[in-house]
Amino acid sequence: MASLKGPGEAQQFDGSDLRIGIVHARWNTSIIEPLLKGTKDKLLASGVKESNIVVQSVPGSWELPIACSKLFSASQVQSTTTGSSLSAGDLLGSSTTDLTALASSAPTATGPFDALIAIGVLIKGETMHFEYIADAVSTGLMRVQLDTGCPLIFGLLTVLNEEQALARAGVVSGSHNHGEDWGLAAVELGVKRKEWA
Ligand code: DLZ
């Protein structure tokens, strides 16, 4: 029997004309890494060109909204100028981590993004920190999405413990990698956004 959860059956969307920006937090890196891989795998499987995927990292989930906003603005500026292109890691001067190996190393094409994906993992601690960040980041990401008109896929895991996070990153045997859903959602929304324009 099909699971009640998940996005359900959808048609295959062709991502070959899309530019996708990914911003991921570095907190909880061991969980971020498989999520980012799952996301990228589905983008590539949907036809998105490696050179049209830009990956940026920020310290923690708190920084995701501002980074997504800036990344989108920068891509719009690029589309009106020539001679510069965004490449992985250069937006916020982010340091090189193992995760950047998952980023495109080729120079990226210019032009505004068709969809953005924000990836972070918030794990509840003993204080109210989790609640404040989860609420603010969710609200911030929605605001960026509506203000820019660029679909922004919500890749923020808000979990009670590490086990729950691992089970949503496809790390535990038999578990599903939610990053794959985020990659597919970005392609679907990127294609539909062009149709809606
Ligand atoms: C400080 C903090 C804590 C305690 N927990 C997390 C977390 O579980 N996931 C995450 O992505 N980031 C965490 N951070 C870092 C904040 O998001 C942020 O980077 C810092 O407060 C600096 O603004």
Automatic annotation (TrEMBL):
Known catalytic reactions: (2S)-2-hydroxy-3-oxobutyl phosphate + 5-amino-6-(D-ribitylamino)uracil = 6,7-dimethyl-8-(1-D-ribityl)lumazine + phosphate + 2 H2O + H(+)
EC number: 2.5.1.78
Protein name as it appears in the record: 6,7-dimethyl-8-ribityllumazine synthase
Family note: Belongs to the DMRL synthase family.
Any Gene Ontology CC annotation: riboflavin synthase complex
Broad EC category: transferase
CDD domains the UniProt entry points to: Lumazine_synthase-I
